[in-house]
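Exam revision sheet. Question 4 asks you to relate a sequence to its structure. Input first:
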Amino acid sequence: MLIFKIFRRPEWEEFRAAGSTDGAPVDIADGFIHFSTAEQVTETAAQHFTSESDLVLVAFDPDTMGADLKWETSRGGALFPHLYRQLRMNEVIWDKSLPLGATGHIFPEGVI
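Answer key, structure tokens:
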């Protein structure tokens, strides 16, 4: 199973250049990095990135994150993965553009 993080393009480029990140402003404010499962990521995109078109969907293996990854109750009572440390570039499995289409974001085939 993979978990996903949606980055705005500038956030993604900064992460790639630095090799690690504390996440987006919302992650920094909340004290952890927000992720979504495959079942959750479309709703995350719709709720938090409604009209944003230059996004990057990044996949991670939660098993490599150790005890710093916690599964916590969030939206609608569902368990969401939250990382309580910096995210490292060497943890990225893959990244793909997440364009905005006429009816919402267009996810890579096989993700959802």
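Marking note for examiners. The mean pLDDT is 95.
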